[in-house]
Amino acid sequence: MATITESDVLAALIASAGEPESEVPAEGLLDTTFEELGYDSLALIDSVSRLEKRFAVKIPDHLVADCRTFRELIERANG
């Protein structure tokens, strides 16, 4: 199983939320909350689905619901 990286999560979030990459701050990204970045729950669900398909992993919904940052999402995905 491949390890999911910060870049992978960023790409999935941008693709699902439609945010231009230039508008997403790179500095401190791992610890910036999804809310601060303007991502809603639907964008997060879509992003997780993209990651699950790409890396053949399953991230249970209850774990995703508790994620607030990229770091938390990556840690749970790489479990």
- Gyration radius (Cα, Å) is 11 Å
Helix percentage: 55-70%
Q: Find the count of extended strands (DSSP E, 2+ residues).
A: 0
Specify the biggest β-sheet. none
Distance between the termini: 11 Å
Strand content: under 5%
Poorly predicted ranges (pLDDT <50, ≥5 residues)?
none
- The overall average pLDDT, rounded, is 76
- Total helix count? 5
Helix/strand class: mainly alpha
Shape: globular
Q: H/E series, N to C?
A: HHHHH
Explain this structure to me?
The longest helix is centred in the middle third of the chain and has 15 residues. 16% of the residues are buried. It is built from five helices and no strands.
Characteristic key phrases:
mainly alpha, 79 residues, 5 helices, globular, 0% strand
Provide a quick synopsis of the model.
With 79 residues, the protein is mainly alpha-helical. It has 5 helices and no strands.
Layout: helices, strands, pairs:
Layout: H1 6-17, H2 34-37, H3 41-55, H4 61-66, H5 70-78
